[in-house]
Specification:
2 copies of one chain form a homodimer. With about 325 residues, chain A is of the alpha/beta class. Chain A folds into 3 domains: about 10-90, Arc Repressor Mutant, subunit A (Orthogonal Bundle), CATH 1.10.10.10; about 95-165 and about 270-315, D-Maltodextrin-Binding Protein, domain 2; about 170-260, D-Maltodextrin-Binding Protein, domain 2, CATH 3.40.190.10. Helix content of chain A is about 40%, strand content about 20%. Chain A is built from 10 helices and 12 strands. Chain A has helices at about 10-20, 25-30, 35-50, 65-90, 110-120, 135-140, 205-215, 230-235, 280-300, 310-315, and strands spanning about 55, 60, 95-105, 125-130, 145-150, 160-165, 170-175, 195, 220-225, 240-245, 255-260, 270-275. In chain A, the strands form 4 sheets. Chain A has a 5-stranded mixed sheet. In chain A, α5 (about 110-120) links the parallel β3 (about 95-105) and β4 (about 125-130). The longest helix of chain A is centred in the N-terminal third of the chain and has 28 residues, at about 65-90. Chain A is rod-shaped, with a radius of gyration of 32 Å. The relative contact order of chain A is 0.14. The interface of A and B includes residues 8, 50, 54, 72 and 97 of A. The structure holds a DNA duplex (30 and 30 nucleotides). Chains A, B: Keywords: DNA-binding, Transcription, Transcription regulation. Chains A, B: One of its GO terms (molecular function) is transcription cis-regulatory region binding. Chains A, B: InterPro entries: LysR_HTH_N, LysR_subst-bd, WH-like_DNA-bd_sf, WH_DNA-bd_sf. Chains A, B: Belongs to the LysR transcriptional regulatory family. Chains A, B: This is LysR family transcriptional regulator.
Chain lengths: ~325, ~325
Amino acid sequence: MNIRHLTFRLLQVYVTVVKAGTVSQAARRLHLTQPTVSQQLRRLQDAVGEPLLESRHGRLQPTEAGREFYRACQDALGRFDDYDDYLSALRGGERGRFSIALVNTAQYVLPRLLGPFSQTFPQVEVSVHIGNRQQMLARFERQEDDIYVFSHPPSLEHALAARFMRNPLVLVGPAGHPAAKAERVAISDLLGERFLLREVGSATRMMFDSWLQEQGVSLGATMQLASNEAIRVGISSGLGLALLSEHVLAPSDRSLAKLPVEGLPIESYWQFIVWRDRRLPHAALAFLRFADEHLETWVESQWLRNEVGRLVHYFDLD
Amino acid sequence: MNIRHLTFRLLQVYVTVVKAGTVSQAARRLHLTQPTVSQQLRRLQDAVGEPLLESRHGRLQPTEAGREFYRACQDALGRFDDYDDYLSALRGGERGRFSIALVNTAQYVLPRLLGPFSQTFPQVEVSVHIGNRQQMLARFERQEDDIYVFSHPPSLEHALAARFMRNPLVLVGPAGHPAAKAERVAISDLLGERFLLREVGSATRMMFDSWLQEQGVSLGATMQLASNEAIRVGISSGLGLALLSEHVLAPSDRSLAKLPVEGLPIESYWQFIVWRDRRLPHAALAFLRFADEHLETWVESQWLRNEVGRLVHYFDLD
DNA sequence: ATGATGTATAGACGATTGTCTATGAGCGAG
DNA sequence: CTCGCTCATAGACAATCGTCTATACATCAT
């Protein structure tokens, strides 16, 4: 059997003929002329090298080889029909997978969107990569993920960004700290305190350093800690103060207090970053669309800042 | 997805590319040039309407849609590979089905061949139709079966025949009959006896009638019985004499005796009859081939008469 | 015989495929 | 920065496909 020139069309014709029982009937169903169908059948039988149909009392009956061939056709055609269904699910973004990379701190906010999204599209498999800014930048450079979440994005020359949430950075101290009750405090009044810092290279650290420089001050005692969690614990046990995302202050957590330092908060934003020329999986686009449409539902209005529409729009036009 | 112009060849190319990981590699394996493969891939992706491959660190990786498409290809190609295996089994006659129609009396001889054949080709499904000559002739006219077994075939204008076994017709009487011990008897000396006959239209009856006419004699008392079995019982219980196939005299059956009538036995032969222009299923051909080759093994040499080779040869050349 | 219905064959033709060569562009290892 | 891979695109061309119309042949029921 020479399979090379077998077209799926040919299989469809064959299946129709077997179902219809006559060539003419099949031709009518297929909106073809009878000779066309006859000829296709001949080609098919030539390709298979075996008669597939024989005429028994006026109707075309498949031969033994033809019956089995019919089954094979049904299976193959069915398989590609299934694939077609799969494709449309994929295209609709209801299915498939995508990966998203977050810097550590985004863990506090992204689950609010990812959770409901996964509920709505249970067939979509999301890989979430979490790491520090350095690691995420490396992934970004290697284009290992479909969507990145940064607060302070790298160069946007080949990438697009869309803000989706405010991320004000505030100075945090232990609950009982005197400045917490003040109306307003100058940073210079706090330089005697020890400051707890994330490692150089972290976004918060970068922002803090440049803000301090702007204010024309520099810190005294500092202590470097590896995670925001460690810093939180450190603050509440009186180890010092720190600049933190306001999201880190869980409403229920009474052991920390925001200090009303002049010139703060530093406004920054969580944003989705996507490579401009990278093909975005449908599922990833579906997530962005979901974020765009449902941000209001899952994020308190005080944090809202929805620019995701632009991004969706950009990729929708592809 | 537009399936119409998808060729299996195209699927093979795609599968090879995915396995090879690069277009060039695949091209080499397929003995094609690289641009050819590139172009096929493009056509394929156009047909599917979705990118199937993307280049990740130097190798081509299937996309989500591509991975699933790959599976669909494997399934479809595998399905037709299986069909190919099936086909060759069919062609080899190791598998499939055929039908054979026998006149009643052939039941005594055909199982000797069919039994061993079925043992050798357990995958072949044989339908055996048994009836009287009239019924079998009707089936023959309507071409309902692949092979017919007649002792006295109908017109052979559009059919081919091959003798495979002697079928001498002898006069049979009860064991104690005086003529059984004689050296030779003339039929005229037996006309006082009652004769047991099959119905008009049965082959044996036809042969007997024309033989009697040749001898210029006619029977006195007769009795018509519907089956050879009934006739056997009738003879042994002294109801009369009958012309029967010598095969009917089981060696162990001591209640019947062959009467050495002059001018007998009438030589006749079991033969396979096949429509000349009917496509013979491979399995049917395999049976004839089997009969041709193994007749000596399963049939005592005294009955042998093998002309089946001619038939096999005729259809082999198709 | 005469239609009616179904199938096969032949000839025609534009669209698509399968293949090539030539050439240019991208990229990772020297 | 160039070499040696890789891939993509363009142009060419014969073979094959997917269709059609016209016509002849085969059955079967008038």
